[in-house]
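Progress against Task 2.4 (sequence-to-structure conversion) is shown through the following example record, which the project officer requested during the mid-term review.
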Amino acid sequence: MTPLVLMSIQAIPRVLMLVVGVLGFVFSVKGRARGVSGLMTGAFVVMLVTTAAGIAWQFISLDAPSWVRSSHLSVDELNVIFLAVAVPLDIAAVLSWLLVAIGVVKSGRPRPGFAPYPGPAGYPMAPPPGYPQYPPN
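Structure tokens generated for the chain above:
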């Protein structure tokens, strides 16, 4: 098998993660109307960018042997290049999961605001059927 075919097969799980990230992003945007935390939407955006960058890096790194030949890179220099790309991608992935965790914690709390008012214009609501009606003051 050629390196491109092998790399394409290795990219399948990341492409599936990309699909799940897109679905999560769509559901979190729709959920914003129902009070879902904006952190979840931000987390999915970070996940999508990180996953897309990881997929792109997989295919860009296929050209590493020619980098070594053309630029006369040593193994240590090549390791530094791969490390310089891997560290920001891993930090972004950790950040996205941290945002998800914070969003989940925040989603369980009641939203700050006023207590529900008793009735229209602040007047008490009418009693349920079967209870005596009292005249307003």
